[in-house]
TrEMBL record, chain A:
This is tRNA uridine 5-carboxymethylaminomethyl modification enzyme MnmG. The gene is mnmG. NAD-binding protein involved in the addition of a carboxymethylaminomethyl (cmnm) group at the wobble position (U34) of certain tRNAs, forming tRNA-cmnm(5)s(2)U34. It comes from Melghirimyces thermohalophilus. FAD binds at G14, A15, G16, H17, A18, G19, V126, S181, Q370. Pfam families: GIDA, GIDA_C_1st, SAM_GIDA_C.
From TrEMBL, chain B:
HAMAP family: GTPase_MnmE. Mg(2+) binds at S234, T255. The lineage of its organism: Bacteria, Bacillati, Bacillota, Bacilli, Bacillales. It comes from Melghirimyces thermohalophilus. Gene3D superfamilies: P-loop containing nucleotide triphosphate hydrolases, Probable tRNA modification gtpase trme, domain 1, tRNA modification GTPase MnmE domain 2. This is tRNA modification GTPase MnmE. CDD domains: trmE, TrmE_N. Keywords: Cytoplasm, GTP-binding, Hydrolase, Magnesium, Metal-binding, Nucleotide-binding, Potassium, tRNA processing. Belongs to the TRAFAC class TrmE-Era-EngA-EngB-Septin-like GTPase superfamily. TrmE GTPase family. The gene is mnmE.
Amino acid sequence: MPTSGERYDVIVIGAGHAGCEAALASARMGCSTLLLTLSLDTIAYMPCNPSVGGPAKGHVVREVDALGGEMGRNIDKTHIQMRMLNTRKGPAVYALRAQADKVLYQQEMKKALENEPNLVLHQNMVEKLLVNDGVCEGVLTRTGAKYYSTTVVLTTGTYLRGKVIIGDLTYESGPNNQQPSINLAHHLHDLGFETVRFKTGTPPRVNKSTVDTSKMEIQPGDEEPRAFSYETTQYITDQLPCWLTYTNEKTHEFIRDNLHRAPMYSGVIEGEGPRYCPSIEDKIVRFADKNRHQIFLEPEGRETLEMYVQGLSTSLPEEVQQSLLRTIDGLEEAEMMRTGYAIEYDAIVPTQLWPSLETKRVENLFTAGQINGTSGYEEAAAQGIMAGINAARKVQQKEAVVLDRSQAYIAVLIDDLVTKGTNEPYRLLTSRAEYRLLLRHDNADLRLTELGYQVGLISEERYRRFVSKREAIEQEITRLRNTTVKPTEQVQQLLRSLQSSELDNAVELSKLIKRPEVKYAHIQELSPPEKPVSPEVAEQVEIQLKYEGYIKKSMQQVEKMKKMENKRIPDWVKYEEISGMSSEAREKLSRVRPLSLGQASRISGVNPSDLSILLVYIEQGGHTHASG
Amino acid sequence: MDTDTIAAISTPVGEAGIAVIRVSGPDAVRIADQIYQGKSSLSEADTHTVHYGHIIDPDSGEQIDEVLVTVMRAPRTFTREDVVEISCHGGMVPVQNVLEALFSSGARSAEPGEFTKRAFLNGRIDLSQAEAVIDLIRSRTDRAARVAMHQAKGRLSQLVRRLRQDILETLAHLAVNVDYPEYDAEELTAQTILERSRHIKEEIEQLLQTARQGKIYREGIATAIIGRPNVGKSSLLNALAHENKAIVTDVPGTTRDVIEEYVNVRGIPLRLVDTAGIRETEDLVEKIGVERSRQALDEADLVLLLLNYAEPLSEEDRKLLQVVRNLTAIVVVNKTDLEPQLDLQEVKESLQDIPLITTSIKREEGLDRLEEAIADLFMEGRAPSADATYVSNTRHISLLKQARQQVEEAIDGIQSGVPLDMVEIDLKNAWQTLGGIIGDTVGEDLIDQIFSQFCLGK
């Protein structure tokens, strides 16, 4: 056990999906790290759905892995099924999703933490941060122990003043009846942090032995082996299916009859809930003309019969939930094992953060995960790894790592949060990304592994493998650009078999592969490379050439964006003294304090003329500063 | 940070026989060269040289205007970037057409004060001018904001909003297909998107059509000056013409006689109807009679009714007041330099919403207020006839063309089998471009649309 008064480089508070990544990143970057958690039994706990990934979220897991994080590796070891979604769409939106064995996921993550050399894992509740003159210097626990550090990462999830709501029953609690964190919430207030009250919810769980799956559609995993991590070589082949059923008119009528008992409508809930995660009662009210809603039954693990009822998030009273379940096909006899509930909690207004995730108010304090107003394990892990990297870099007296929106979904997430804030729990969607075509599932390593290596999270060995893959892609693309095929009978026959038009003249392979029906395998057939390329290399070659035009178009937009991004806003700027700027722009700019003109341009209410005025002001001041 | 090329008219419209369009930026010479036809290409021209030639419409290939083009290469220019200045014949039509041709070829409309801003940022102008630059940006933006506000209420903006909503719904549907692949929303097919895109393109075409026909942009606001004999119609005409200087038009067949029919009042082109009649008889009403003049008045976008301050209201005056009540009109009570005989109260009561201005044209008093009133009428949204869906603004035209191009790219993409989630990129661009017309910035609209249109959740 760490003794009171002990000193670390980095202290991480909370061992959820954000905290685990933050602590591992910091420890792996060579910083002595203390990870404090309320309970060692809830490390990397999944209080809601038993799945990881999906569109945008799956992209993030790949990115975390490409940077050297743990989530991808961990789910690869502990899933019960995996599916690639959107395979009939373009490669930019292919999305991998896994169903997790929740308990196994926790155990594996705990093992990873325990085995990390620079990491001390300890169970204790933090009640206060030790803040001296606006600088965070450590933490004070409920047991009275004080631990000191250069930087602190705070990842409180939904524990801050957590309140569970079921019908008209409410009680103070963290998720799944964990103890809530009350004193720390008040302490953050005392430190001057502005907070909001958010709400989220979870559906009931049922016992599989009481579920009649013969009335449902089976949802199996993919037969082709899948993995999130670029490092995974061993695949799980034994998969469990999920099941699909639907609500019906009986369900809807029953809910309507009991609406007056729903806390959403009786006024018990004050917190702002997410639109993308409405409770079933909310769906029935808002989409009254829809006569059925999908319900997925998802196993919570291999060693349990407990099943998650996706689509039925609710905070109706317990007995209503039980009866409600039984109106659904296949759930007539279902035995409810856990009751669904809504939970309210404090989140800090994320515009109080720098893009590094350090708070503006308290130096050396970083926050990550649901405390920043997000929702989702993946969103939490993404912030966790970035906060961990930057907390460690601050210790190492190095500049913070801030990704840009053309580099990663992680950047889209963090930039949205710190620039625009959010008035509901924030979930990533592919439509939030401007450069979706560049931020693909397949190329996360090409986007981020170099960076992961530079900060010290990618091993030499992994980096060498990565570099040789990158080179192989470039070589093969060059070869296809420089190789032509003539309209020989072999070529024409192949094209005919693909229902593609025949060649009139010789054509470069790089052009031929642009035809929608022509795949890399066909090219390989016509003109095999000297050394056969790996499937990963072939995939990159095909995507990069096939969609070259669209990729170029996106790159041009990125160039424009970068110019704005590269124009830094110096810290001596005083918005209140800039005349001519609209008062809305002035107020928002002084609150967010954007670091670049690009960031400033994304604040709603700041228009181009405000930016022009700001630019002129900076240039003017710049001259004054230089000469004076 | 500015690497795009901007263009704008740099002389006040109508103030001279020649108008100068300035183009600045790295591609200034290349862009100008694309629409220029002369002895040799501008790209080969030495810096600070002048070239005679013609500007060609890139769409139709027709000659737009006979011009002198000055090529000035960086850094010895106002903005320290490559600059091309095109001197055209001053009329509204050719100048706007040349500008449009530049936009079609890759230049974008300069923001207010942008040339000066670039000059400043490139170190060309001196520090003491920085404040002035800010004032310039601010003041012009205020005006632009007022115009935008007016347009926000207008028909063009309604049409653009509807169009954007169409695109937005399609985008939201595509987004749901991508972000919630298992959700039971109908999967949009290439065929559906193709049909919707074609429909959107047609709508944009129609808007551009109105631009071509845009009455005000082409012809100015048809303005009739009416009133009893000797009330000062001719003097008013002369005063307006004198004050604002006549616009030289290049409409074929026009002579110097009709040139003075066009006057530019605070940027608004007025075409004075039946000016000759006024000059010859000094009385349009008398000549054609009140009944017949009604017809002429119906065709006018703006009626200026003159009353005599020095005489009591006559029966004819009352009839005319009756007539103009349902028109876009301004009542001008002239000759305030003389003893008042007119019952102003009675006039005001019969006017309802029609503005009343008092002037003494002889003493040059009140003309400012009249111009103000005209400007208000046509800038604040109470503008005239039903066919006035003005796509008259060159910036709007260039944005519409850009949006059309983006929708065309979407259509091409679908037809060549590109995945729909990539086609979405083009549609989203078109949606954003159209947003530029009504001043909408990027917001959460799409996300909002997704969650109001579809029922999603865990």
